[in-house]
C-alpha cells in the first residue's frame, strides 16, 4: 500500500484469511488490510488499484517485478540482477532465467531464457530442482527448502553422475537442462498427484524406471534413506554450479561489481553462499522476499520509480506488515481466556525475564510489531531458544514444530560480533545465505550449526530492531553468547503467524513455554 507521497504503509500476505501457504489468492490479504481501522481511509478511492485474479493469474512481466524488488530494494546505484525461478509470464512467454543491468535510469534486460508458450517450462532450473526433490522423497509441492536441508547429509555418489547427464553449467555460464528428466520425474510424482498429469511415453518412462532401479527402493514420500540424501546432494551440487555459472555470466555481461538475486531459486541460501564466496562480485544483495511473495513489492517499487516519487526504496529491514493496535492485542489475550496467565511488563523488566527463561532452556514464541515480508522469521514472528543446548534442535523439530528431523535452525546475532562466530564478510539481515560457523565455536552453538558446519545467519543492527538487539545483549549477559536460535513462529503446514490472535492460537496449540505478545508475557495456565 502506497501513500500519495510515496510512503509504503503496509504489505499483507497469504498469512491472513485462510492461512494457506502458496494460496495464489490476493483477496484475503487485500480484505484483511481493508478491515484494519488504521488503513481503511486508503481504500475504495482512485488510488486503490487492486487486481482480483480469482479467474486466473494476471499476466505480467514476472521477472521484471522480481528484478525490481531486488535492485530497488538493495540501495545500490548500479548492479547486475539475476532472477532464477520456476517460471513466470512475460506476455505469452514463460521466462525462467533473466539477467538485468540496474542503473539510476532503471532496469535494462540483458538476456533471458524463456519458452515461447505453454503452461510449464520444463527447462527451468527451479522445476529441475523440484523434480530432484521428488526423486529424493519430497512428497509435496514447495518442498525445495527441505531438499536443500537434506542435501547436507548426502555424499558424492552414482546419483551425481546420473543427474549430470540431464543438467549442468556450460563454459560460458549458461546451462543445460534435459526437459525429459523434469517432466518424467514429475509425471510419476508431484505432477500426477497435484495436477493429474498423464503417464509419460514408454521411452520417457524408461528413464524413470532406470532412476528408480538405481535406488535401493523406490522413493517414498516423507521416508528418507541414504539414497534420498545422496540424490538431494547431487541436485544441490548441480544447482550451485548452475547458479554460480550464471552469476559469472552476469558479471561478464554487465561489468558490475555488485549482484542482486531474486526469484524462487534465490531462497536456496546454500547456493547464495556459494555465489558470495566463490563468485566474482564484491557485494551481494538478496531481497527478503525473493519468491513470488515479493512480486507485489517489485510492482510497487516500479510504480515509485515510474512516478519519480521522492522515496527511498532501500529495504533496511523486512518489517513491512500491517500494524496492530493495543486493543487488538488485548482482544487476542481475552479470546485465549483462562487458558493463559498474562502479565504486562515494561521492557526494562520483560527483556531480562525473557533472556533468563531462554538461558534456562525455555522455548518462547515472540510476536512484536509489523510482520516480516518474505518467508523468514526475522525477530517479529519468531520462536526463540538457547543455541547452546545440543538437544534443542531435535526438541524443536520433533516436539514444537512437528517436522522432519534434518531441518536446520537459524541463528540471530548482533551484527558487530557476527564475525566472531561466523565466516561472514558482510551483513546478512535477511537470512539469505549459508555461511560457515567458525570451527572453534561450533561446540558452543550446536543447535544452530547444521551437519555440514554451516548456518543461515541473521545479523541485526540496533537501528533495525532495537528491542531484539537488546534481548540479544541481555541473553549474552546470562549465556556468554550474543546469539539466539530463531525459527519461524508457525504451526505445521501454516505460514508465519500474522495477527495477535494467530499468535495466541499457535501458542496454545504448540509445545511452547511462553509467549511474548508486545509488552505482555503469557504462560499457559498451570505452568510456572
Automatic annotation (TrEMBL):
InterPro entries: Carbam_trans_C, Carbam_trans_C_sf, Carbtransf_dom, NodU/CmcH_Carbamoyltrnsfr. Residues 355-523 form the Carbamoyltransferase C-terminal domain. GO terms for molecular function: catalytic activity. Residues 57-298 form the Carbamoyltransferase domain. Belongs to the NodU/CmcH family. This is Carbamoyltransferase. It comes from Streptomyces fumanus.
Amino acid at each position: 500500500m502506497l501513500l500519495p507521497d510515496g510512503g509504503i504503509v503496509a504489505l499483507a500476505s497469504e498469512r491472513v484469511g485462510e492461512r494457506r501457504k502458496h494460496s495464489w489468492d490476493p483477496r484475503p490479504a487485500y480484505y484483511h488490510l481493508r478491515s484494519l481501522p488504521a488503513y481503511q481511509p486508503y481504500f475504495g478511492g482512485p488510488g486503490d488499484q487492486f487486481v482480483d485474479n480469482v479467474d486466473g493469474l494476471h499476466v505480467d512481466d514476472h521477472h521484471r517485478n522480481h528484478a525490481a524488488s531486488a535492485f530497488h530494494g538493495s540501495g545500490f546505484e548500479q548492479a547486475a540482477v539475476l532472477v532464477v525461478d520456476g517460471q513466470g509470464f512475460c506476455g505469452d512467454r514463460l521466462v525462467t532465467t533473466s539477467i538485468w543491468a540496474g542503473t539510476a535510469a532503471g532496469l535494462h534486460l540483458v538476456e533471458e531464457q524463456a519458452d515461447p508458450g505453454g503452461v510449464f517450462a520444463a527447462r527451468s532450473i527451479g522445476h529441475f530442482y523440484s523434480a530432484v526433490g521428488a526423486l529424493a522423497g519430497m512428497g509435496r509441492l514447495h518442498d525445495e527448502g527441505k531438499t536443500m536441508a537434506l542435501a547436507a547429509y548426502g555424499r558424492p555418489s552414482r546419483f551425481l553422475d546420473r543427474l549430470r547427464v540431464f543438467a549442468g553449467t556450460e563454459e560460458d555460464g549458461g546451462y543445460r537442462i534435459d526437459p525429459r528428466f523434469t517432466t518424467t520425474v514429475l509425471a510419476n510424482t508431484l505432477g500426477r498427484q497435484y495436477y493429474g498429469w498423464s503417464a509419460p511415453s514408454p521411452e520417457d518412462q524408461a528413464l524413470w524406471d532406470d532412476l528408480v532401479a538405481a535406488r535401493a527402493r523406490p522413493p517414498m514420500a516423507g521416508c528418507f534413506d541414504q539414497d534420498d540424501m545422496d540424490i538431494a546432494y547431487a541436485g544441490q551440487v548441480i544447482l550451485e554450479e548452475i547458479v554460480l555459472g550464471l552469476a559469472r555470466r552476469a558479471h561478464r555481461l554487465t561489468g558490475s561489481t555488485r549482484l542482486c538475486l531474486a526469484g524462487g531459486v534465490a531462497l536456496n541460501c546454500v547456493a547464495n553462499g556459494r555465489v558470495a564466496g566463490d563468485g566474482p562480485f564484491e557485494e551481494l544483495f538478496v531481497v527478503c522476499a525473493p519468491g513470488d511473495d515479493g512480486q507485489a513489492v517489485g510492482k510497487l517499487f516500479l510504480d515509485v520509480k515510474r512516478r519519480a516519487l521522492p522515496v527511498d526504496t532501500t529495504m533496511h529491514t523486512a518489517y513491512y506488515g500491517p500494524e496492530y493496535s493495543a486493543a487488538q492485542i488485548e482482544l487476542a489475550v481475552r479470546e485465549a481466556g483462562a487458558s493463559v496467565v498474562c502479565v504486562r511488563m515494561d521492557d526494562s523488566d520483560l527483556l531480562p525475564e525473557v533472556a533468563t527463561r531462554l538461558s534456562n532452556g525455555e522455548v518462547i514464541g515472540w510476536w512484536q510489531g509489523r510482520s516480516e515480508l518474505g518467508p523468514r522469521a526475522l525477530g517479529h514472528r519468531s520462536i526463540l531458544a538457547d543455541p547452546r543446548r545440543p538437544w534443542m534442535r531435535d526438541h524443536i523439530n520433533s516436539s514444537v514444530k512437528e517436522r522432519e528431523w534434518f531441518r536446520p535452525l537459524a541463528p540471530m546475532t548482533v551484527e558487530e560480533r557476527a564475525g566472531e562466530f561466523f565466516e561472514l564478510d558482510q551483513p546478512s539481515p535477511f537470512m539469505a545465505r549459508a555461511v560457515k560457523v567458525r570451527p572453534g565455536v561450533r561446540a558452543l552453538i550446536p543447535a544452530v550449526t547444521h551437519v555440514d558446519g554451516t548456518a543461515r545467519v541473521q545479523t541485526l543492527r540496533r537501528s533495525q530492531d532495537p528491542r531484539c538487539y537488546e534481548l540479544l545483549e541481555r541473553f549474552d549477559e546470562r549465556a556468554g553468547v550474543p546469539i539466539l536460535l530463531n525459527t519461524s513462529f508457525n504451526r505445521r503446514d501454516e505460514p508465519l503467524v500474522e495477527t495477535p490472535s494467530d499468535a495466541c492460537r499457535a501458542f496454545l496449540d504448540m509445545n511452547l513455554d511462553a509467549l511474548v505478545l508486545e509488552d505482555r508475557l503469557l504462560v499457559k495456565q498451570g505452568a510456572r
